[in-house]
Amino acid sequence: xxGYTGKxxxxxxxxxxxxxxxxxxxxxxxxxxxxxxxxxxxxxxxKNTYDSPDMPLIFATGPLVGTPAITSGRISVISRxxxxxxxxxxxxxxxxxxxxxxxxxxxxxxxxxxNKWVLLDIDNDKIRLEDxxxxxGKNVSELTIVKKDTSFAAIGIAGERRVKFASIVIDGHxxxxxxxxxxxxxxxxxxxxxxxGDRTVEICDPxxxxxxxxxIIRLLRASPAIYGEFGLSEFxxxxxxxxxxxxxxxxxxxxxxxxxxEALNYSGYNLKRQFNTKKVGCSGxxxxxKKRGGMGEMIPEYETASHxxxxxxxxxxxxxxxxxxxxxxxxxxxISSAATIACYSEIQNLRLSPVEIINLLKDIGxxxxxxxxxxxxxxxxxxxxxxxxxxxxxxxxxLPAYDPRGAYGMALAYATxxxxxxxxxxxxxxxxxxxxxxxxxxxxxxxxxxxxxxAEDLNAVVDSLTAxxxxxxxxxxxxxxxxxxxITGSNHDAQxxxxxxxxxxxxxxxxxxxxxFNINHDDLPKRFFTEEGSSTENIKIxxxxxxxxxxxxxxxxxxxxxxxxNS
Length: 567
Fold this sequence. Notes:
By secondary structure, the chain is of the alpha+beta class. It has 23 helices and 16 strands. The strands form 4 sheets. Strands 2-1-6-3-4-5 form a 6-stranded mixed β-sheet. The protein has a 6-stranded mixed β-sheet with strand order 8-7-12-9-10-11. The protein has a two-stranded antiparallel sheet with strand order 13-14.
């Protein structure tokens, strides 16, 4: 099939061996690319620990990458999570995937442990390992590795010191953040990967792809959530601050409350006004949801703004932007960083000032003082001090910035997520809060089990195509099936792609089962069933009914065909 190069790079860091190999066509047929391809490739190694020489770290593109397809610039990074122990993938933007594909490769498979720090340099057919001892002890902004027409993936000090939620940072600010894949890279003593590629990716039917792109752009332009006056293109994901605030489901003070009175200080509108933001974005994306300030500073995404804001009782936009900068520089996931600090604050009965939050972030990145323990994540920290119930996490992954008491589909999606507390395995916020494509009752589990199942399968496809989930606020899998067909010459429709998504999802579930995850892990912290949120006379945020949640989870298991047992 066109759209693929058919080649992968294999690196054995222990033996310092490099080879290029042909990727099995069956992998493409069964798993598409990106997330699915990577999960399939680590299947035989999933029982190894994240820092084992046998645990692969995989960077995988998809068939859209390097083509004119809309949102074609992403790449997936896959391994086993140091934070959760689950199979884990991150979809990340920037130019790295495009450069890799144009160098002639669909993926990089890295195994082994180097005996010293190295940099992997890929320049079309030239692939070599370079000494990187002079780069150690440096954060991402200090690295002088960029050359003309190159892209890079690197870790900062947090990855070197194996912070359990360390990120891999692409092109300085696009982060494969959740789950700690930066610690996997750090365990291999791989400081960075630099890639340059200038080849053309062949596609099957350029005219059909142009027609599909026109249709996708038309649908995007018609979407208020994307191109509306207060949409993602205008304000970035921080546009969500206003609506989540109004619905009283913003996690506040480690999820003890669901409303932060000063949240609008860091709304998308106010961030744009205060920082004079400009639009930037990933390769092949017309939305440009990333925002850069007039002084060059990166403006936080919604999750980051809310968690360094409401979750930690901070209303200062300058401090929130600074916290985001530090996380990007050290290479740390912003959601887990902020949530772990919030957990620490509750356990120690503290209300940290913005300066104290910033200093604590640096201590975590450097593993200094209490930061060394917090670098293990909120669940390990809370368990160490005897209060595991105060870690607001699922399967050890800290929850993002939607309180499940205000969106019951989100509650079920958190619990069933294969990688832990994640909003992007399914995204019921789209219909429960944004009312797209069809509005559902956010305080009901009715019909949510089937909706979540379909959304999980859909997003497995999206991550394997390596497309952007935001586009699906406006378009459907039908348009992307057409894009895939025009690129590869395949004959997919939405239903055949969803079958592949289901295959990927079930494989992930199986791999987690091999590492002893079961129905008991598909649950939420007790707080959400026993404590109400920040209610008013007009908006009630009660605790989630435990029995209703368990019935919805049983419905989900039946729809999936899973056993209703603990095994």
